[in-house]
Amino acid sequence: MPSPNSPLTGPLPLSKEKLRNIIALLSAYALCLYGLETLIPSPIPWLRLGLANIITLITISLYGFRAAMMVTLIRIFVGSIFRGTFLGPAFILSLGGGVFSTIVMGITWRFLGCFGPVGISLIGSYAHNLAQLFLAYILFIRRIEAVALIAPIILLLGTVTGTFNGMVCGILLRDLKSLGSSISFQGKAP
Taking the chain, what is the end-to-end CA distance rounded to the nearest angstrom? Predict the structure, then answer.
């Protein structure tokens, strides 16, 4: 069970209004990173760095699972509306991967506090990719050979992006802590 000062309960008790404002600000950051990411040329059309997941990981560690899930949902819904993919296949894959990875990262934070930001990010990256592969198979592809062929590539790229995002998150958490913020970091130091 986490301590009262653990990442899942947040560092300090916050009023509902203050927490809503923080969630709105973090969602805006996530949307900015998402938008920035769409401007980066990609050699593979479906490959994304998942930069917005840095904000999700920071949110889990500072304000808990519920806040992180809200940030994830706001980013996915608003981002898909801006990109014109709302309720399309890309939206479904993004929603499934984002929700599942946030749940898995939240559970990992709560019950396996021995992981640092890179470990949690990698677990979230794998969860995101596996959820998307599962949804792609169930809803769109229906050929296990195609999924089995692309899965190693997706998981390898997810390892690279998950490691990068976790490293950035660790640096940001360390810098926030050095600024004197009241941050509770459960797990290994970055």
Answer: 22
The domains of the chain are located at 16-178
Angle at 59 between CA 156 and CA 125, to 5 degrees: 10
Q: Are 123 and 115 a contacting pair, CB within 8 Å?
A: yes
For residue 134, give the nearest of 92, 75, 84 by alpha carbon: 92
CA dist 173 and 171 (Å) reads 6
Higher pLDDT, 170 or 111: 170
Band of pLDDT at residue 2, cut at 50, 70 and 90: very low
Q: Which long-range contacts (CB under 8 A, 24 or more apart) does 152-155 make?
A: 154/129, 155/126, 155/129
Q: Does residue 38 surpass a pLDDT of 50?
A: yes
- DSSP conformation class of 116: -
Q: Would you say 122 and 163 are in contact if contact means Cβ atoms under 8 Å apart?
A: yes
Instruction: Copy the structure tokens of residue 137.
Output: 């198979």
Which of helix, strand or coil describes residue 40? coil
* Selection from 142, 140, 108 nearest residue 124 by Cα: 108
Amino acid at 178: S
Write phi, then psi, for 91 (nearest 5 degrees).
-65, -45
Q: Between helices 65-83 and 16-39, what is the axis angle to 10°? A: 40
Class of the domain covering 16-178? mainly alpha
